[in-house]
Design brief:
β1, α1 and β2 form a beta-alpha-beta unit. The chain is built from 10 helices and 15 strands. The strands form 4 sheets. It has a 7-stranded parallel β-sheet, with helices on both faces. A 4-stranded mixed β-sheet has the order 8-15-14-13. α1 crosses α7, α4 runs parallel beside α5 and α6 runs parallel beside α8. With about 325 residues, it is an alpha/beta fold. The structure holds NADP nicotinamide-adenine-dinucleotide phosphate and guanosine-5'-diphosphate-alpha-D-mannose (GDD). The site of NADP nicotinamide-adenine-dinucleotide phosphate (NAP) has 26 residues, from α1 and β5. The site of NADP nicotinamide-adenine-dinucleotide phosphate has 26 residues, from α1 and β5.
Length: about 325
Amino acid sequence: MNKKIAIIFGVTGQDGYYLTKLLLEKKYIVHGVKRRSSSVPTKRISSFLNQKNFIIHYGDLTDTSSIYNLINTIKPDEIYNLAAQSHVGVSFYTPIFTANVNAIGVLAILEAIRSINNKIKFYQAGTSEMFGKTDHKIQSEKTNFNPQSPYGAAKVFAHQITQNYRDAYKIFASNGILFNHESPLRGDNFVTKKIVNSLTNIKKGKQKKLVLGNLYSRRDWGHAADYVDAIYKILQQKKPGDYVIATGKDCTIKEFVNKTAKIINLKIKWKGKGLNEIAVDENNKTVVCIDKKYFRPLEVDYLKGDASKAKKYLKWKTNHTLDDLIKEMVQYELELP
Ligand code: NAP
Ligand code: GDD
């Protein structure tokens, strides 16, 4: 039997690593697309670079010609689009770049599929940020979108254009609506990685303070390894569709700090309010404080997902609790030199 061929846009990111690992285990030929960078962008995926079924290419979602040429040359069975300017806070500083990559870049892939071969299956990495400010305490595929950032707004365009191309051109195009998912390979400036990295450094005596923004937003955090399993399953269904992927459990940033501190055995106590809120250690030294520069012009206060559809049709489930996830992230940081 011929091996399946996949293209992964965004292969150098967190999910790119876990999805590549999964597809190589499933005997795919994986073509990863990296963009040009002044430093080495392939650190996460260095272990795959010498494997014969993994081929890396230059490309960029803002360069339509590169997308068309790659798809036309590789002739994949499946395309996974994980590429994005994925930081919500940063999207307020780079809104046009964010829209070009996260919205127009997706349209460019769909246009290439339409004109080259509409039998190529397509996965779009959608997000719970599309729900934004919502009255629904738990969000599902039926919940309206009300994004609160250039990132979220661009992802809504990507989600809807993916549906349009599915309906208009009969392309097998599916959207995941993934809630926050983390791992030891999470980017350094996302809050979970920042908390785990800083608190372990404080414990090792290498850092004095962890400086955060809003402590009271709530997120539904899962493990990236479980979420790429859902991404793969979404493209193996008989019919295309859209799926929420989430744990159904949420907690605040402050609760995440407390859980991490407990796991690394750092005793902390909270004092004060608002911008003056701090956490102190046993010696009354401040280890966590707030800086308003980490607050966003708009905030998404709570996200919690209902993944019933994925559980029923994809037979998907999460295999990690939040404590498992934090323990794995802490262990990784502790083992760093
Ligand atoms: P990530 O670690 O930030 O990875 C993003 C990837 O996109 C990186 O490989 C990045 O390349 C690439 N990229 C950025 N701009 C590009 C461009 N112009 N052309 C080509 N590639 C470009 O993000 P992630 O956490 O793995 O998330 C994967 C996808 O899922 C993203 O689309 C994200 O928006 C979405 N999502 C993530 C979560 C989550 O909680 N992780 C939840 C919902 C949805 P560089 O390495 O060169 O920067
Ligand atoms: N990054 C960051 N840094 N966030 C902070 C900080 C800080 O110092 N302090 C508080 N926060 C709060 C943010 O305001 C937000 O409410 C929450 O922590 C989570 O922030 P991030 O970890 O940056 O993730 P996100 O929820 O904004 O976005 C992530 O999840 C989305 C899915 O819901 C990203 O992975 C997106 O790409 C993804 O779509």
